[in-house]
Amino acid sequence: MNTVTPKGIAAIVFTAEEIAAATVRLAEVIARDYASEPVLLVGVLKGALFFTADLARALPDSLDISIDFLAVTSYGNSDRSSGEVRLLKDMSEGAEGKHVLIVEDIIDNGLTLSYLQDLIGRRHPASLRSCVLLDKPYRRRVDVKVDYLGLTCPDTFIVGYGLDYQEKYRNLPYLARLEPWVFEG
Ligand code: PRP
């Protein structure tokens, strides 16, 4: 295993162990809530790639689970949201009549999750809930309901565990903040 810290990482914010523990806590509550009905997990690419996989594997075998993905973007190559959410890839299957659980890596200004709740909500799911690993409550622009929340983030730009800066650092097993010079290019 590579134990050398990649260039540009200033400090670890959440370790892989802390992320795993939060995921297990979320899975326990979700397992109770969906014990008697099938659930369709909808992972939001690219950021929720690893979280969706780890959350799904933390849920008990007894649950009736399907997994789908969609892809949206609002940040482009910047560390600031453009404020405009674009759907890059839709779900492969319909949501009508299903118990849908949106799985997101992070909520910041809230526009992405609000857009997705509206998009999927119009498809007449049997129920629609949201599970978000990381909450950044400092710059909300819309009031959005989150049913399952993992960890509260400090007010800093973080990368790793699916989150990127200019498409880099997604593969890190932990969440970290970057050195200021990284943003200066
Ligand atoms: C990030 C993140 C969330 C969204 C949250 O995605 O993965 O989906 O932003 O931000 P918000 O609450 O301010 O809308 P991004 O647009 O960077 O795309 P990516 O997941 O492909 O990196």
Summed up:
This protein is of the alpha/beta class. It is 23% helix and 30% strand.
Task: Explain the overall architecture.
- This protein has 185 residues and is an alpha/beta fold.
- It has one domain (16-156): Rossmann fold, CATH 3.40.50.2020.
- It has helices at 16-33, 49-58, 111-121, 180-183; strands spanning 9-14, 39-45, 65-73, 86-89, 99-107, 127-135, 148-152, 158-159, 175-178.
- Strands 4-3-2-5-6-7 form a six-stranded mixed sheet, with helices on both faces. A three-stranded antiparallel sheet has the order 1-9-8.
- β5 (99-107), α3 (111-121) and β6 (127-135) form a beta-alpha-beta unit.
- α1 (16-33) packs across α2 (49-58).
- The protein is globular.
- The chain starts with 8 loop residues before the first strand and ends with a helix.
- The structure holds 1-O-pyrophosphono-5-O-phosphono-alpha-D-ribofuranose.
- 1-O-pyrophosphono-5-O-phosphono-alpha-D-ribofuranose binds at residues 44-47, 73-75, 81, 104-113, 164.
> At CATH's second level, what is the architecture?
3-Layer(aba) Sandwich
Principal-axis shape: globular
What's the helical proportion of residues?
Answer: 10-25%
Count of individual domains: 1
Topology readout:
Elements: E1 9-14, H1 16-33, E2 39-45, H2 49-58, E3 65-73, E4 86-89, E5 99-107, H3 111-121, E6 127-135, E7 148-152, E8 158-159, E9 175-178, H4 180-183
Parallel strand pairs: 2-3, 2-5, 5-6, 6-7
Antiparallel strand pairs: 1-9, 3-4, 8-9
Helix pairs in contact: 1-2
1-O-pyrophosphono-5-O-phosphono-alpha-D-ribofuranose is lined by residues 44-47, 73-75, 81, 104-113, 164.
